[in-house]
Each structure stands twice: as C-alpha cells, then as structure tokens.
Amino acid sequence: MHRRDLIKAGIVTGAAATTGFRSPAPADSRRHYELRNYELRSDVSSAGLRSFYKDALLPAYARAGAGTIGLFSPETGFPSQSMLALIEYPSIAAVETVAMALAADATFMAAQHAFESGADLPYLRYDSALMRAFTEHAAIEVPPGPATRPARVFELRTYEARSATALERKIAMFNEQEMTLFRTLGMTPVFFGENLFGTRLPSLTYMLTFEDMTARYKAWSAFGASPDWKRINSDPRYAITGGVTVTNVAYLRPLPFSPVR
Fold first, then answer.
1. Cis before residue 122, ω within 30 degrees of 0?
2. Which of 39, 61, 99, 239 is the most interior residue, by most CB within 10 Å?
3. Same domain membership, residue 238 and residue 170
C-alpha cells in the first residue's frame, strides 16, 4: 500500500494514434481508472484486507478526491485467491494528486501503519494497470438499484491488439455503435478503458453487469445472433488488420461494501 509515483510530469502519451474516427473528448471530461489485482495468500484470511479497504481506504480515497470505487472477488478468469479493486480518478493528473493526499492524510497513514504492522499481510503482491475512459463512456456507471439488492454478476473482458491502429478501430466500434447495442440487449456497461500503463499493450478492458448468469448467457446469445451486430462487425470502417483478440473473460462478484454492486 505504499505510495507509488505512477505518473510523472509530462508522461501523458501512449494512447493510440488517431485514424480519422471521432475526435477525442476534451482531456478533462474522461476519467482514468486504476485496476488492481491482489494476489491473496491461501494461508492467511483476506478479512483484514477487506476491512482495511472498507474502514480506511474507501473513506480516505473520498477525502482525497478519487471517484467511484468497485471491489470484487473473482469467480473465474483470475486465480481464486484474488481481490480486485477498480479506482476512478477525475483525470490523469489526479492519480498523483490522490496519492499525495493519501500520504498527507494522518488518519489514513495511521490505519495503514496498523494494517501493515500485523503479523502477516493477507496478500503477497498486487498488479496495477492504468486506463483512460473511452470518449462515449467517460466515467464509471454505477448500476441502478438499492444497495441492499442481491449482488449482480460483473463480466470483465480484456482485448489485446497487434497494433495501435487495430486497437483504435476496435475502440471506435465500441464508441460509435457497439455500446448502444449492448444497452439495447440489457447488457449494462460499467466502464470502458484503454490501457495506458500495464502489461501486454496495446489493449483495452471493459466491464458489463447482469442480474445473474442466466441473464448474461441470454444477452450474449442475443448479441451474437443480432442482425445489428452482424452489420457492425462487417462495416469496413472497423476492418482490423492484424487482429484484436479477446484474451481474458472474468466473472466477478462485488464485495458487500463495494460502492459498485
């Protein structure tokens, strides 16, 4: 949990070059997302990490100016001993601003020291990736409904491209047509992000949510059979040289105290 300087002044490049699709949204209108994957220990309960997020990190992130946060336990797609944290920032500059605010927050630092001074930390390491929101889905979308409702199923999908141009065309497909089709078929978006920092670039990650797995299978079956999808997929504007491949599909359950549930 030690502060990391993820962003240094001037390091704001890395996005795919434009290829004649829609102009990017103004820089301050799109959120940035950090996706953390904690490698939990099998011999130590993860309850301490969950309590640390619930009682210390979530309130501290709110004080520091972070946006919406989601916390999940994976059912498939990740090692079973994992916990995922999705953290929204108002801008790329806010990634560092929030980190600095946490480091200056005496209440949070005391809680972190107490957590890390325990006999055994409940995780070994965590991976972190930084994403920029798509132009047509600029912020995390919290699914509607009361916090007391049964937990939904969240589907996290990662696509890897052979080139920046191929990724740009796939992002354009999402922005211009595919997101609308998702909504028409009851596939509720949570976020869409282009991976800026992390492994196996260029790539994108997005999340959908469903009432349950039955609804998920029904929606994807309707999607695959949809004439609109066949039309979109054959549109020459989105023709991809070199390919874009789905490399991971994960099903997640929100933790009981996750703001996204």
1. no
2. 61
3. yes
